Amino acid sequence: MRIEANLILFFWAFSIFSCLCFSVSSINFGYRFPSSAIKAEQVKLTRKSSSTNKLYKTKYFTQILDHFNFNPKSYQKFQHRYLINDTYWGGPKQNSPIFVYTGNEGDIEWFAHNTGFMFDIAPHFQALLVFIEHRFYGKSIPFGGDKDIAYSNASTLGYLTSTQALADYATLIIDLKKNLTAVDAPVVVFGGSYGGMLASWFRLKYPHVAIGALASSAPILNFENITSPYSFNNIITQDFRSESENCYKVIKGSWKKIEDTGKQSGGLELLRKSFRICKNFIDVDALASWLETAFAYTAMTDYPTPSNFLNPMPAYPVKQMCKAIDDPKSGNDTFAKLYGAASFYYNYSGTATCFNLAYSPDPHGLNMWSWQACTEMIMPTSGSNKESIFPENQWNYSRRAAGCKAFYGVHPRPNWITTEFGGHQQDIYRVLKRYGSNMIFFNGLRDPWSGGGVLKNISKTIVAIVAEQGAHHVDLRFATKDDPKWLRDVRQMEINIISDWISQYYHDLAHQS
C-alpha cells in the first residue's frame, strides 16, 4: 500500500474529483488548500451585521475572457462576481481605503465568510470591502456560465490561469474605483493560502493598482527545486510528535497494520467495523487516505480556538487527537485509537453514524483546482522520509505529468510560476528586495504549507511575521475573546503595518497635489 497526498477518492474539503475516480491510482494532485463548512462563521458574521443590512451585496462585472491576446475569441465576455460591503467606508471624498480579497479556488462567498479579519478592521480604517471571485469558480464561469462547456476540455480550461485571474482583479478594481469616483482611494489586497499567493503576486505585477498586500500562509516558494517535497509531511509529523511520542509512533505504525489486516480473510469487514465505515464501500487505500486526510488537515488547521472552518473541531485539535490515541481506555487496540483520533476531525459534533468513503461532495465548487495542479501549480508535497508519520514515499513528477496528460491532454509547466513571479535561477529574496515593497507574509509554523512560505524579512517594507504556534492563515480568522496573546499581537502588527502604508500613501498624495 502506498500512502500519498492523493485525496481524490474522498475529498470533502477541496472536494473529490468524482470524474477522476478511474485514474486515481495514477494521478497525484497533492494536497490542496483547505476549505469546507461555514456555519459557525456565518453565525458570527450575522451578529456583526445590522438587522437591516446584509453582510454584502453581490455584484457582477462584465469581464473579458483573455487579457493577453487579440484574437477574436479573446474578446468573449463573462459575468464576473464580486461581493462588496460599504458599511464602514468613509467614501471617495476622503479617499478612504479599499480592501480587496483576491479570491481563491472556490466560491467567493465561502471565502468572505471565513475572512473575519477584514470585517474586524474595516471600522478602524473606514474601509470598503471587496471580495473578488476567481474565474472558473463559483458563479464566475466563462462561456455563458455553462460549466459543461467551460470545463469540457483543455481549449476552454486553458483560460484558467493565475495570470488571467490577476488581470481580472486589476481590471475590475480599476473599473470599480472609476465608477465610485474613488480613483485616488488606496487599495490593499488580502489573501490566504492560494489567495495569499495571488495577493503577493498582484502587488508585484500591479503595484499601480494596490499599495500593499497581506499574504497569509502563502507558499510562494513551494515549487520544484526551491522547497523540499518532504517539507509538508515533515511539519505534519513534527506537529503530532511534539504532542506525544507515543501518538507519533501509533500513527506511524498503523499503515502497515491496516494493509496487513486488509489482506486477511475478513480483514476488510474488521476495518469497516473498526472505523464505522458505511456498508456501501470499503477499501484499504481509501481508508488509509481517509485517515491521512484527517491528520493532514487537522495539522493544517490546528487553531487555538474551536473552529468550523473545515469541520467542527475543538481548540488545539492535534493535541486532542493525541490524547485520544494515548487514552489508556483503548488499551492496545490501534484501530480504536485511530478511530478516536479521526473522530475529532470527521465527527466532533457526534452526528455521523457511519463514514462514506465513496461519497465525494464539492459544496464550494473547488474541483477545477485539478486543472491548475496539472498546468502551472506544480507544488510537490507528497515526499515522506523514514521519520515521517506517513509511509516512505518519493515525490514523482513524472507520474503527475503522465496522469495530467492522460486526463486533460496537457503537459504541466513546473517552471512557469517561478519564471513569471521569480525563483529558481534567482533567489526570490534578492528578487523581491530589488523590486518589491509593502508586503506582509504571515506564516504559522504548525501549518504544513509554511515550509514553502517566506519566513524572514526581506526588506524594511517586505515583512515576514512568523508565529511558532500558528496554523493555516489563522490571522485572517475572526477575533475571539479566547485568542492567545501571540495571535492578538500578530494581528496588531498587521494593522500597524497597513496603517503605515496608507499614511505614507496619503502623505505622497498630498505632496503630489
Automatic annotation (TrEMBL):
Single GO BP term: proteolysis
One MF term in GO for this entry?
serine-type exopeptidase activity
Family matches, as InterPro entries: AB_hydrolase_fold, Peptidase_S28, Ser_carbopepase_S28_SKS
**Record keywords:** Glycoprotein, Hydrolase, Protease, Signal
Secreted: present as a keyword of the record? no
The record ties this protein, via Pfam families, to: Peptidase_S28
Q: Which residues form a coiled coil?
A: none
Into which family does the record put it?
Belongs to the peptidase S28 family.
Q: What protein does this entry describe?
A: Serine carboxypeptidase S28 family protein
